[in-house]
Amino acid sequence: MKRTALITGASSGFGREFARIFAQDGFSLVLTARRTEKLMEIKNNLEKEYGVAVTVITKDLSKEGAAEEIFAETQEKNIHIDILVNNAGFGTLGDFAAAELKNAQDMISLNVRSLVTLTHLYLQPMVEKGFGRILNVASIAGFAPGPGMAIYYASKAFVLNFSDALSTELKGTGVTVTALCPGPVNTGFADAAGFKQNILFSGKADGKAAKVSRYGYRMMQQGKPVAVPGAVCKMGAFATRLAPREFAKWFIYKVQTSRFVK
After folding, report:
1. How far apart are CA 221 and CA 223, in angstroms?
2. Known catalytic residue: 50?
3. Between vectors from CA 242 to CA 238 and to CA 246, what angle results, nearest 5°?
4. Identified catalytic residue from 122, 152, 153, 217
5. How far is CA 257 from the centre of its chain?
6. CB 61, CB 110: distance < 8 Å
7. Confidence of residue 262 (pLDDT cuts 50, 70, 90)
8. Could you point out which of 43, 90, 126, 206 has its C-alpha 20 to 30 Å from the C-alpha of 96?
């Protein structure tokens, strides 16, 4: 039976890579993001190359009600979602006190509220059918406090812990939830966040988008609750739990400041 995957933030980065991976394995796709032109380009390429059906839904998930509108549209089109990939998200560099409140609110809306809403809406039909996979893109940032990107780190900590908790609640239902926690990867995130020149994105980032996406796909299919790609990221996640909290905060803040640039 042909299954369908819904991928948010599908116009670039991990989302675009996930779309290709699912298409290669014969999944029908629902792709959503803000940029219709980019989505249509991806749709046309995937349909031509892999012969899969691709539905495009243009939405800005930082806007109130957007997640519910996506769910309603798939319901109206009688599209049953078997796999949900909550990939959309963003972060910005800068101290919270100096940031625009609207930016912080939009980040919470996109990284947290829309993810929770889509998960809840699609989770219930999955449980009823006895099958489903949910892949939530968190971050290695979710393992530590992040001065200089306080809202982003906190939002990814929410995604990580929310996903991990659901994975336990759903045992025996046929539905699994996986939190993918990548480290720095050149996906366009750094440009949007405002620290493209930071050493974290110097080209030595732990893994490329396609490699990390393929890893996340495998871990999701296996039902792993938490997926941390690469030895360096695994060590980093472990180290932040062992290191004194004050040192961890100091180190992260220093790494994220302009003095550590290539």
Report:
1. 5
2. no
3. 120
4. 152
5. 24
6. yes
7. very low
8. 206
